[in-house]
Write a structure and sequence with these properties.
single chain; mainly alpha; 277 residues; MetI-like fold
Amino acid sequence: MDARRVVWRVLFYLLVAVIVVYTVFPFYWAIVSSLKEGSALYQVEPFPPHPAWGNYTAIFKEQSFGRNILNSVMVAASVVAISLLLSVTASYALARVEFRGRTTLLLTILAVSMFPQVAVLSGMFELVSWLGIYDTLWSLIVSYLILTLPFTTWVLTTFVRELPKELEEAALVDGAKPWTIITRVFMPLMWPALATTGLLAFITAWNEFMFAITFTLSNQKRTVPVAIALISGASQFELPWGRVMAASVIVTVPLVVLVLIFQRRIVSGLTAGAVKG
């Protein structure tokens, strides 16, 4: 029995090691590639003997990459703030208020999130043109909401449904209004779910490419995914992979830092609702 337990434990740790290597290796290899240039990119080495740190400085000197990062931060932060504000209020209405067509509305919200981006691209382009916000950051914020808002609304609605009704009833007895119930009663309990949905919405907005390359024209308005895709070399047949990998590492680090900061709340948010309060 003991021998079998040892074997299973060894197999378990081996499986964990394989999963860790499988998930971490691409990021590790991106870092290694970002420190190479020229023919060194085609050599397999655990770490380059002569790191080309110039790749990191070149992407800021040769183009306005700092501005592109700022654009991504502004767009992603705005999308998260608007998505959470609208989804918190919508989730309360969908989870607690009885009205006709509530189930249909929830299914519609879920169906919207299933459409591929290319299916709504032409319609969003017409909307952006009609609003007169083409080649502005507002065009990205408005278009990204169609990607994040259905998801955040659906997840938070499920979370609010699991909150004890006694809390709401006690607040109503004390004369609290719906907005007071949302902000003073529910939101302190919703922080794990808000952190999880907010971070996932941030990652979606940070990495989005199709809307970003369609609705922006000038380099001063582009976000980092488009800026990385448009990095070019000395000729049209040469792609500086070292600088591309350096830019990729730079834009990935903030996501890793956010996940490490909010990892406890993310776990709490993902497991919220497993045990009804």
